[in-house]
Amino acid sequence: MTVMPEANAPPPLRYHRVILKLSGESLADSNQRGISGDEVECIARQIQQAHATGCQIAVVIGGGNILRGAQFSGTNTMVQQATAHYMGMMATVINSMAMQDALESLGCSTRVMSAIGVDTVAEPFIRRRALRHLEKGRVVILAAGIGRPFVTTDTAAAQRALELGADVVLKATRVDGVYTEDPEKNPHAVLYESLSYQQVIEKNLRVMDATAIALCREHQVPILVFNFKQDGNIVRAVAGESIGTWIGGPSG
Ligand code: UDP
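Above: inputs. Below: predicted complex with uridine-5'-diphosphate.
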């Protein structure tokens, strides 16, 4: 016997567990720094809706809206680069705290887990505990990247995807996916529907940092690059709809 789907049944859930990578800049107004309450709320609403479909979601948040370690690479600064990277990690903690409050105010149960010690405001990242939170239906917000300097939160997203057994890394951007050129500079740039990891590396496409791509390629974790600015796209992404640019395929 064939069971007919109910008329208003939700679309089938494609992913069981995802890592959602948000840049720090996604929390700021366009071309601004800092944190915009409106932007945080807008993203939190989308995450809450995606979570309500039953998908387990761990969010890795960047810190570029406040500070990136590489900003201090010049010789005209007394701040050492390693220090600056730890400052960048602290920025991700600030962003994570904002996202936690926004999600909780929408009725979403959350935990912030940090890779550096900030016990007063976040739990330490402990893999098995993170898995337990996800299984209990909490959105886990992963702060401070991997807790080590000289990498970015892209690498953290790939690393945590492996550790937590995520089906996919959802890389949220403010354009529709990966283009032949920067679409904000060249309006004739063409959107790729899909790419292999090798193509991303060979064409030097700025999708995620090289370490993140290498990790995903080695362990065959797919990446979906999509536009979070389009309302409903986070829900579409966790439902496996064909949006953005899909990166996966042969490890070659
Ligand atoms: N960072 C780091 N180790 C990590 C994650 C982040 O040192 O594991 C630092 C690094 O300086 C980085 C900054 O934190 O530039 C902010 O993160 P990121 O640049 O990834 O933020 P995004 O570009 O996603 O906003």
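The longest strand covers residues 17-22.
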